[in-house]
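Your task:
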Amino acid sequence: MRNNPPSSTRRVRAAHESKSATVRAAAAAPSRRQQSRWQREQHQQRLLYIAVGVLVVLIAAVFGAGLIYDNVVRANQTVAQVGPDAITASQLLDEVRPQGQALDAQAKQAGSGQNVASYVDQQKRALPDQVLNELVDVRIIQQEANRRGSSVSQSDVDDKERQTVADFQASNNPAPTPEATAAPEATPGPALTSATPELTTLPVPAAIRTLTTPTAVPTLEDSTYTQALQKLLNQNGLTEPELRTALERSLLQDKVQAAIGQEQVPDTQEQIHAQQIQVASADLANDLRTQLQNGADFALLAQQKSTDTATRDKGGDMGWFGHGTQTQAIENAAFALQPGQLSDLIQDTNGYRIIQVLERDPARPVPADQLATQRQKAFSDWLSAQRSSQSVKLSLDPSEKDWILARIGVRP
């Protein structure tokens, strides 16, 4: 029987296996050309990695520099100088933000609508300049208080806060008006007046300014007080520390105002008691003056001829007045006269006046209402002079204003 030859165990390699072997062989013993190409590829890959890394670092640096400039450099730029004190953009923002929140709170109470939104936007845009002026006043008054050694204690602020909250509670929960009943005829007495304090120049929310009054500190139960305080804060968009800061500034201004008023406006001043006749034409005024020089009764002519309704029925009596309470023309004419003398014709927008001085007093006590008005004016004049002095410089530019507006939600 014929034996078949054994089958060969040798396997024919596929093409791809042959190629892999070639690659492995080449990798095991690469040629110079292959080594050079691989080195170039590796060098290019390293350069690519380096370039990407540098680009990432540059982007991060630019972004970081922008953040630093926006939140550090710009925030610390000076927007006003008040003597030795600088006011920075971030300090101004800290003052603007609560007032912007107060506007939002008021708008929320008023309801939605295009008119409300437009009004709030307009008011917010005015805040940086407005609040900067107020903050300048704060610094001026603080510096003056420091110079005088004046300060406000925390107990003073506590009392002012309780008073403010109690006034707020009373205004929101008025006592019921009792029904009218017949009352016995009252004995005539002095008329009661209610003087509304002039609004402070400091950045105190309007609702708070109108609530605080120079009365004894009211008492509220703790639970009622806490609720009323929170309601007041919510309606004005404030935190309690912000409220206390506003009240402290208001109290400090009161102290400085009182000190300056007492220094510049004494309790007693030179005053004149005079009477007047006012008419429309110069011819009539000259005729009346001639009659007075010939002995006619001043009071009688004033009742018959004067057009000034405030003094006519009193025979032209102007009462006592001091410097700064009449127009400059009337003051100049009156204080140039001695008792019994007549003035020349005084022309003003109301016509022609003749004044006769009845009495002079070099040191007459000033009525309380006039004294308060004069001292308020003295303080306002002093503060205005300080604002316009060389030691106060404002430097809020449009870019800084836009920076602040953007942070209170207003698109520049």
User: Anything to note?
Assistant: Residues 32-73 form the longest helix (42 residues). Confidence is low (pLDDT under 50) at residues 180-203. Residues 342 and 350 are 19 Å apart (CA to CA). The radius of gyration is 42 Å.
